[in-house]
Amino acid sequence: MKILCFCPLRYILSAMLLVGCVGTYAQSKNPSDIKVNGVVISQELIDLAVKSATPQGQQPTPALENEVKQRLINIELLAQDAVKQGIDKTPENQIRIRELRQNLLAELLLVDYLSKNPITEDQIRAEYERQLKSLGTGNLEQYKLGVIALPSQSEAASVIAQIKSGEPFAKIAKQKSIDPSRDQGGQTGWVLPAQINPSIALVMTNLPKGGMSSTPIQTPNGWYILKVEEKRPFKVPAFEETKNQIRANLAQQKQAELIEALREKAKITQ
Fold first, then answer.
1. What's the pLDDT score for residue 48?
2. Which one, of 185, 182, 220, lies nearest residue 200 by Cα?
3. Residue 212 forms beta bridges with which residues?
Protein backbone atom coordinates (compact mmCIF):
# COMPACT_ATOMS: atom_id res chain seq x y z
CA MET A 1 0.00 0.00 0.00
CA LYS A 2 1.43 3.39 -0.98
CA ILE A 3 1.11 6.55 1.06
CA LEU A 4 0.48 9.31 -1.45
CA CYS A 5 3.51 9.77 -3.69
CA PHE A 6 6.29 9.91 -1.11
CA CYS A 7 7.99 6.70 -2.24
CA PRO A 8 11.56 7.57 -1.15
CA LEU A 9 10.25 7.99 2.41
CA ARG A 10 8.07 4.87 2.46
CA TYR A 11 10.07 3.22 5.21
CA ILE A 12 10.11 6.34 7.37
CA LEU A 13 6.44 7.13 6.83
CA SER A 14 5.41 3.62 7.77
CA ALA A 15 7.55 3.80 10.89
CA MET A 16 5.63 6.87 11.95
CA LEU A 17 2.54 4.72 12.27
CA LEU A 18 4.18 2.97 15.20
CA VAL A 19 3.94 6.19 17.19
CA GLY A 20 0.69 7.37 15.67
CA CYS A 21 1.79 10.45 13.72
CA VAL A 22 4.73 12.19 12.10
CA GLY A 23 5.61 14.57 14.88
CA THR A 24 4.89 14.62 18.59
CA TYR A 25 3.52 17.20 20.98
CA ALA A 26 6.63 17.82 23.02
CA GLN A 27 8.97 20.57 24.09
CA SER A 28 11.49 21.18 21.32
CA LYS A 29 15.02 20.86 22.67
CA ASN A 30 16.86 21.25 19.39
CA PRO A 31 16.83 24.58 17.51
CA SER A 32 16.86 22.65 14.23
CA ASP A 33 13.59 20.89 15.07
CA ILE A 34 10.55 21.89 13.03
CA LYS A 35 7.18 22.79 14.57
CA VAL A 36 3.92 22.39 12.66
CA ASN A 37 0.92 23.72 14.58
CA GLY A 38 2.76 22.96 17.79
CA VAL A 39 3.80 19.45 16.77
CA VAL A 40 7.55 18.83 16.75
CA ILE A 41 9.25 17.11 13.83
CA SER A 42 12.56 16.29 15.49
CA GLN A 43 15.96 16.60 13.91
CA GLU A 44 16.44 12.88 14.65
CA LEU A 45 13.43 12.07 12.51
CA ILE A 46 14.63 14.42 9.77
CA ASP A 47 18.08 12.78 9.80
CA LEU A 48 16.53 9.31 9.57
CA ALA A 49 14.31 10.38 6.67
CA VAL A 50 17.26 11.99 4.85
CA LYS A 51 19.32 8.82 5.29
CA SER A 52 16.47 6.73 3.88
CA ALA A 53 16.09 9.02 0.86
CA THR A 54 19.82 9.22 0.05
CA PRO A 55 21.02 6.74 -2.63
CA GLN A 56 23.45 4.16 -1.27
CA GLY A 57 27.07 5.24 -1.46
CA GLN A 58 26.22 8.94 -1.81
CA GLN A 59 26.14 11.87 0.57
CA PRO A 60 22.95 13.88 1.12
CA THR A 61 22.85 17.26 -0.55
CA PRO A 62 21.34 20.44 0.92
CA ALA A 63 18.67 20.27 -1.78
CA LEU A 64 17.70 16.73 -0.76
CA GLU A 65 17.62 17.67 2.92
CA ASN A 66 15.33 20.59 2.18
CA GLU A 67 13.08 18.42 0.01
CA VAL A 68 12.78 15.87 2.83
CA LYS A 69 11.93 18.59 5.35
CA GLN A 70 9.22 20.02 3.11
CA ARG A 71 7.76 16.55 2.56
CA LEU A 72 7.67 15.87 6.29
CA ILE A 73 5.91 19.19 6.85
CA ASN A 74 3.38 18.40 4.13
CA ILE A 75 2.75 14.95 5.56
CA GLU A 76 2.32 16.35 9.07
CA LEU A 77 -0.24 18.85 7.79
CA LEU A 78 -2.12 16.10 5.94
CA ALA A 79 -1.95 13.77 8.94
CA GLN A 80 -3.23 16.45 11.30
CA ASP A 81 -6.14 17.21 9.01
CA ALA A 82 -6.93 13.49 8.65
CA VAL A 83 -7.10 13.15 12.43
CA LYS A 84 -9.19 16.33 12.68
CA GLN A 85 -11.69 14.83 10.23
CA GLY A 86 -11.69 11.48 12.01
CA ILE A 87 -10.43 9.63 8.96
CA ASP A 88 -8.11 7.52 11.13
CA LYS A 89 -11.07 6.31 13.20
CA THR A 90 -13.14 4.62 10.48
CA PRO A 91 -13.19 0.79 10.70
CA GLU A 92 -11.72 0.41 7.21
CA ASN A 93 -8.86 2.81 7.86
CA GLN A 94 -8.14 1.25 11.26
CA ILE A 95 -7.60 -2.02 9.39
CA ARG A 96 -5.33 -0.28 6.88
CA ILE A 97 -3.27 1.33 9.63
CA ARG A 98 -2.93 -2.00 11.42
CA GLU A 99 -1.87 -3.65 8.16
CA LEU A 100 0.83 -1.04 7.56
CA ARG A 101 2.05 -1.44 11.12
CA GLN A 102 2.20 -5.22 10.81
CA ASN A 103 4.04 -5.01 7.49
CA LEU A 104 6.58 -2.62 8.92
CA LEU A 105 7.20 -4.73 12.03
CA ALA A 106 7.68 -7.80 9.82
CA GLU A 107 10.13 -5.90 7.63
CA LEU A 108 12.05 -4.63 10.65
CA LEU A 109 12.32 -8.16 12.04
CA LEU A 110 13.66 -9.51 8.74
CA VAL A 111 16.21 -6.70 8.50
CA ASP A 112 17.29 -7.34 12.09
CA TYR A 113 17.53 -11.09 11.47
CA LEU A 114 19.78 -10.60 8.44
CA SER A 115 21.97 -8.14 10.34
CA LYS A 116 22.49 -10.79 13.02
CA ASN A 117 22.87 -13.60 10.48
CA PRO A 118 24.71 -11.91 7.59
CA ILE A 119 25.42 -13.53 4.25
CA THR A 120 29.17 -14.13 4.11
CA GLU A 121 31.44 -14.04 1.11
CA ASP A 122 32.23 -17.72 1.69
CA GLN A 123 28.54 -18.60 1.54
CA ILE A 124 28.13 -16.68 -1.69
CA ARG A 125 31.19 -18.37 -3.19
CA ALA A 126 29.95 -21.82 -2.12
CA GLU A 127 26.54 -21.18 -3.71
CA TYR A 128 28.21 -19.97 -6.90
CA GLU A 129 30.28 -23.17 -7.08
CA ARG A 130 27.18 -25.27 -6.40
CA GLN A 131 25.34 -23.60 -9.25
CA LEU A 132 28.29 -24.10 -11.58
CA LYS A 133 28.35 -27.79 -10.72
CA SER A 134 24.61 -28.13 -11.32
CA LEU A 135 25.00 -26.77 -14.85
CA GLY A 136 27.16 -29.71 -15.85
CA THR A 137 30.07 -29.70 -18.24
CA GLY A 138 30.49 -29.19 -21.97
CA ASN A 139 28.91 -26.60 -24.26
CA LEU A 140 25.85 -25.08 -22.63
CA GLU A 141 22.81 -23.75 -24.46
CA GLN A 142 19.98 -21.52 -23.34
CA TYR A 143 16.47 -21.98 -24.65
CA LYS A 144 13.69 -19.45 -25.12
CA LEU A 145 10.48 -21.37 -24.56
CA GLY A 146 6.77 -21.20 -25.11
CA VAL A 147 4.74 -23.43 -22.81
CA ILE A 148 1.11 -24.37 -22.34
CA ALA A 149 0.03 -26.33 -19.27
CA LEU A 150 -3.27 -28.18 -18.94
CA PRO A 151 -4.82 -30.10 -16.02
CA SER A 152 -5.16 -33.39 -17.93
CA GLN A 153 -3.43 -35.39 -20.64
CA SER A 154 -6.55 -35.45 -22.81
CA GLU A 155 -6.91 -31.64 -22.70
CA ALA A 156 -3.25 -31.23 -23.59
CA ALA A 157 -3.55 -33.68 -26.49
CA SER A 158 -6.58 -31.74 -27.77
CA VAL A 159 -4.62 -28.47 -27.66
CA ILE A 160 -1.72 -30.03 -29.58
CA ALA A 161 -4.20 -31.00 -32.30
CA GLN A 162 -5.54 -27.43 -32.38
CA ILE A 163 -2.07 -25.95 -32.79
CA LYS A 164 -1.20 -28.42 -35.54
CA SER A 165 -4.39 -27.39 -37.35
CA GLY A 166 -3.27 -23.76 -37.37
CA GLU A 167 -4.34 -22.19 -34.06
CA PRO A 168 -1.66 -19.73 -32.78
CA PHE A 169 0.35 -21.10 -29.86
CA ALA A 170 0.27 -17.79 -27.95
CA LYS A 171 -3.49 -17.38 -28.37
CA ILE A 172 -4.24 -20.81 -26.91
CA ALA A 173 -1.74 -20.23 -24.10
CA LYS A 174 -3.61 -17.09 -23.04
CA GLN A 175 -6.97 -18.82 -23.28
CA LYS A 176 -6.28 -22.21 -21.71
CA SER A 177 -2.89 -22.52 -20.01
CA ILE A 178 -2.71 -22.89 -16.22
CA ASP A 179 0.97 -21.94 -16.17
CA PRO A 180 1.85 -18.46 -14.78
CA SER A 181 3.26 -17.58 -18.23
CA ARG A 182 -0.25 -17.57 -19.75
CA ASP A 183 -0.48 -13.75 -19.61
CA GLN A 184 2.67 -13.57 -21.77
CA GLY A 185 1.26 -15.99 -24.33
CA GLY A 186 3.23 -18.85 -22.76
CA GLN A 187 6.60 -17.10 -23.09
CA THR A 188 8.93 -18.02 -20.22
CA GLY A 189 12.11 -16.25 -21.28
CA TRP A 190 15.57 -17.84 -21.47
CA VAL A 191 16.25 -20.96 -19.39
CA LEU A 192 18.94 -23.58 -18.97
CA PRO A 193 18.13 -27.30 -18.82
CA ALA A 194 19.22 -27.45 -15.17
CA GLN A 195 16.73 -24.73 -14.21
CA ILE A 196 13.53 -26.52 -15.21
CA ASN A 197 11.65 -29.77 -14.66
CA PRO A 198 13.81 -32.70 -15.90
CA SER A 199 10.97 -34.11 -18.03
CA ILE A 200 10.58 -30.79 -19.84
CA ALA A 201 14.36 -30.33 -20.13
CA LEU A 202 14.76 -33.74 -21.78
CA VAL A 203 12.24 -32.88 -24.49
CA MET A 204 13.53 -29.32 -24.85
CA THR A 205 17.11 -30.32 -25.57
CA ASN A 206 15.98 -32.69 -28.32
CA LEU A 207 13.77 -30.21 -30.17
CA PRO A 208 15.02 -28.03 -33.04
CA LYS A 209 14.47 -24.28 -33.11
CA GLY A 210 10.77 -23.74 -33.77
CA GLY A 211 9.95 -27.32 -32.82
CA MET A 212 7.02 -28.31 -30.58
CA SER A 213 6.52 -31.39 -28.44
CA SER A 214 4.33 -33.93 -30.23
CA THR A 215 2.86 -35.42 -27.04
CA PRO A 216 1.95 -33.92 -23.63
CA ILE A 217 4.72 -33.88 -21.01
CA GLN A 218 3.65 -34.93 -17.51
CA THR A 219 4.89 -32.86 -14.55
CA PRO A 220 3.68 -32.37 -10.95
CA ASN A 221 2.06 -29.11 -12.07
CA GLY A 222 0.14 -30.44 -15.06
CA TRP A 223 0.58 -31.67 -18.61
CA TYR A 224 2.84 -29.45 -20.68
CA ILE A 225 3.13 -28.59 -24.35
CA LEU A 226 6.52 -27.16 -25.20
CA LYS A 227 7.77 -25.02 -28.07
CA VAL A 228 11.42 -23.99 -28.56
CA GLU A 229 11.36 -20.41 -29.84
CA GLU A 230 15.12 -19.75 -29.88
CA LYS A 231 18.45 -21.29 -28.88
CA ARG A 232 21.75 -19.62 -28.04
CA PRO A 233 25.10 -20.54 -26.48
CA PHE A 234 25.34 -19.79 -22.78
CA LYS A 235 28.43 -18.24 -21.24
CA VAL A 236 28.76 -18.85 -17.51
CA PRO A 237 28.96 -15.45 -15.75
CA ALA A 238 32.00 -14.68 -13.61
CA PHE A 239 31.61 -14.68 -9.83
CA GLU A 240 31.78 -10.88 -9.60
CA GLU A 241 28.98 -10.53 -12.16
CA THR A 242 26.53 -12.69 -10.26
CA LYS A 243 27.45 -12.42 -6.58
CA ASN A 244 24.94 -9.64 -5.81
CA GLN A 245 22.09 -11.73 -7.18
CA ILE A 246 23.31 -14.77 -5.27
CA ARG A 247 23.48 -12.67 -2.09
CA ALA A 248 19.88 -11.57 -2.62
CA ASN A 249 18.75 -15.15 -3.23
CA LEU A 250 20.49 -16.39 -0.10
CA ALA A 251 18.90 -13.57 1.91
CA GLN A 252 15.48 -14.66 0.66
CA GLN A 253 16.28 -18.23 1.69
CA LYS A 254 17.26 -17.08 5.20
CA GLN A 255 14.05 -15.08 5.50
CA ALA A 256 12.02 -18.08 4.35
CA GLU A 257 13.77 -20.26 6.95
CA LEU A 258 12.91 -17.76 9.70
CA ILE A 259 9.27 -17.66 8.63
CA GLU A 260 9.10 -21.46 8.51
CA ALA A 261 10.61 -21.72 12.00
CA LEU A 262 8.04 -19.26 13.34
CA ARG A 263 5.21 -21.16 11.66
CA GLU A 264 6.36 -24.44 13.19
CA LYS A 265 6.22 -22.94 16.69
CA ALA A 266 2.96 -21.08 16.15
CA LYS A 267 -0.60 -22.24 16.76
CA ILE A 268 -2.45 -21.41 13.55
CA THR A 269 -6.14 -22.08 12.98
CA GLN A 270 -7.80 -21.49 9.61
1. 87
2. 220
3. 227
The pLDDT tens digits of the residues spanning 197-225 come to 999 999 999 999 999 999 999 999 899 99
d(CA 7, CA 19): 20
Please tell me the distance from the alpha carbon of residue 234 to that of residue 231, in angstroms, as a whole number: 9
For residues 210 and 204, is the Cβ–Cβ distance under 8 A? Answer: no
Give CA torsion, residues 5, 10, 15, 19, to 10 deg. 0
CA distance 99 to 105: 10
Secondary structure letter of residue 212 according to DSSP = B
Domains (range + CATH), the chain: 7-116 (no CATH), 119-137+247-270 (no CATH), 141-233 (3.10.50.40)
Q: CA–CA separation, 45 vs 40, rounded Å? A: 10
| Total count of residues recorded for the chain | 270
CA distance 138 to 37: 71
Q: Tell me how far apart the alpha carbons of residues 128 and 243 are, in angstroms, rounded to a whole number.
A: 8
